[in-house]
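Model it.
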Amino acid sequence: MSIEKVRTLLGKRENIRLEFKKSLTTIPSNLFESVAAMLNREGGDILLGVDDDGTVIGIDPSKVDAMKTDLVNMSNNPQKLDPPYILFPVIHKLDDKYIIHVQVPESSQVHSSNKVIYDRSDDGDFRIFQANRIAEMHNRKRTHYTESKIYPFLKFEHFDKAIFIKVRNLIRSNNASHPWLSLDDRQLLEKAGFWRRDFQTGEEGYTLAAALLFSTDLTILNILPHYKTDALLRVKEVDRFDDRLYIQDNLITAYEKLMSFVEQHLPDKFFMEGDQRVSLRTKIFREIIANMLAHREYMSAYPASLTIFKDYVETVNASNPHGSGPISPDRFAPFSKNPTISKFFMQLGLVDELGSGILNVNKYLKYYSSGKPEFIEGTVFRVLIPLGDQKGEGTNATVNATVNATVNATVNDLIVHAFGKEINTKVRERLGRIVSFIQNEPGSRANAITEGVELSKSIVRRELTNLINNDVIEFVGAPKTGGYRLKNNSSKK
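Modeled.
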């Protein structure tokens, strides 16, 4: 969550979805009572280092990192939270004071802390002891979240072993010290909430969410014969399609295939965020695709689809709506339709925190194309992403890879070595784009470079002269047929 959103929370009073807690050096002893209560009710936000009236007291700077680590580890401890639900605390600094923000989504399971079940109201957290109240809570969860439906005859051997390897690699790349990495495959499924017991019926076993994420294609289709996701390209053949990808894989493989389809048929644009080059296409569509998969109502036979048109991209998927009509990025409360699946996507690094999708798409789309995205809530959830004017950028991934040359660390070091550390950041970035293009396409002429790096002809010709004068590149061949390439000694600088 952005610092602006945190400031907004600080301006509110505590309520059913908001809790302030003092915590100078240690995690409050009752923190996981609030976490369990929010998981069991509507979710919410907890701010550590804040007084009850919203005054920022702060956390000891020497303790804040350790508290964040302890909070993650405790959320994986069944004594503190059962079943475990790994949280993603974020440290913020406001006026030289540190606070920790914990976003808690509503869960599809019933959670306890120190073997006590808690619920949440405007007055805070309260214990639930009555058997009928506990049964009512389980019943509410079971009927609302179909991802938690138990399949008693779904066994461990029905899962694809290769998916566990892929999952561990994704978790490791996102968080090398993640506590799940020390678990075996069966333990990982239990900790992640894919095995559950229904205390009202006595039924226990792996859930629909487990099947969707880990099962073989055949097992998924035996459980959900209607399951499929369509990816379509309709630029020339609008009534039919120019290209189609029919997906019936598990959700992790489906995510990869959909991202590959987007990369194949949509252009990317050169974009610097600070001093880092980022892919706008990836930033936008990882959120769109993850949203379509993680929040889909899988019991519905309505097919999900991602369609690329000439001027816009549309995704549709069945939904268990929490409202109706367009969603405003300024006025919406994040609500997970499949909390277990959403949480797992977060652990893999495929999405950020709950609600980040709408915010990130709005943040980056303005740099990618004209127009505003539309998110429309209903029994069918629809997303419309305008493509605006994409002239000259094509739809071929190989072309895009050249057009949008990445300024890698080697090229950056080369520029700094040739022109000095004092070189202006914008100039360094501009020179880097030109050098990266020539590195990828040696022998290119000025016109091709101009088109590829999206700079004016006069700027490109001026910078080519600068690069030649500083022994970074050279022109090889006859004036009419030759082209530019890196000098042999450039790689040694």
